[in-house]
Amino acid sequence: xxxxxxxxxxxxxxxxxxxxxxxxxxxxxxxxxxxxxxxxxxxxxxxxxxxxxxxxxxxxxxxxxxxxxxxxxxxxxxxxxxxxxxxxxxxxxxxxxxxxxxxxxxxxxxxxxxxxxxxxxxxxxxxxxxxxxxxxxxxxxxxxxxxxxxxxxxxxxxxxxxxxxxxxxxxxxxxxxxxxxxxxxxxxxxxxxxxxxxxxxxxxxxxxxxxxxxxxxxxxxxxxxxxxxxxxxxxxxxxxxxxxxxxxxxxxxxxxxxxxxxxxxxxxxxxxxxxxxxxxxxxxxxxxxxxxxxxxxxxxxxxxxxxxxxxxxxxxxxxxxxxxxxxxxxxxxxxxxxxxxxxxxxxxxxxxxxxxxxxxxxxxxxxxxxxxxxxxxxxxxxxxxxxxxxxxxxxxxxxxxxxxxxxxxxxxxxxxxxxxxxxxxxxxxxxxxxxxxxxxxxxxxxxxxxxxxxxxxxxxxxxxxxxxxxxxxxxxxxxxxxxxxxxxxxxxxxxxxxxxxxxxxxxxxxxxx
Length: 513
Hints:
This protein is mainly alpha-helical. It contains 19 helices and no strands. Helix content is 73%, strand content 0%.
């Protein structure tokens, strides 16, 4: 509830300020500057998780590490389940800002904030009571179950702060600001790393909390970072800041809420399908023995970082394209897509090449030198790591396609590539190729996904999609000599002279109600 309380503080005489206008200026420079903070945030969060795992595993033992891993799987699933709704809010806000309709952006902000806060409070309350049942359902080992329950209950208490921070970060990216979320994410990461040993071991006046101390560290760091971010938005008089006079905007706007759910759920399902596909692949790899599984696990550690540039560029392209959709700048939408694809090849390739050339040393960070697992990891890495170049093209184009509200086609492309190609390819060809079938399933499915994405981007109807349904036309009596023009679904910016009339009609994306 911290967000509601802070948003209802008095904001008399506050003039709103906006973030970066992504509808003007050089596309390449703006896209790169926008994507780099997102990439930095992803890296910081991964490193934070690794540092916390070291404290727990090295000093509290294997049972504690297993407990934290099981509890974190639930936390990541819950955060991922609302990922799509956050993306939908980002696109709606970006479209409104591109159309210079700040009133609509603030309406989206109010409805989205109420939705996220309400969901997070319900999850926190229910999770506190259901923690043991969830862990038992996951098959958490008996030795780790009490530790995992203690850890997970505190994590559930942190959910409102986690959800609020994630939502504010998404909203700020919608107005073209990726630096502010990155700065305050770094604050949260630094605080979490600092609090972990203090609360685990009880330094000075602080109590010794064991594994619960790591969860309390997450809660405290997120709450402090969230409070600092809210204070920053209020002090800067940000366009998305909702003060006491804007309390009515926190009431749920049903068309906006419907768009958040209808458009957000398919985007959230994409993340879940990717996770489930990785679980399916791991299950297959487990059947080839410990050495193969260890080699695959080491490669996965590297792949976590290889895919980050594509994910950051895809998120940046989605926000930039959405603003230009709102501004009806289809030329810049097109340029954003191909610039993003180029940056994907440049940044992802810059990671892949040294990982191939220096793989004996990079994989040796996770495996003993001269072990059988190391050679297996090197072999599968040479085959599969290139798939992330093609995956990046799909991710970038999907981000641009979703910027209009076309969220189902990217989901279907993912379903076909993962569950219609990757998993069956690996499963059906194992009798002939053995583990090679698993390794080759990555590039094969990634190339197919890229080709499907390129085809839909070129010939699909995504440019005619809408995040919000167009406002209904109301019949109004007018003099015969005056044409009756239905209101545009966005604020009515002047069309460019060379703009196609059909595109001008199809570009309506935000409901002003």
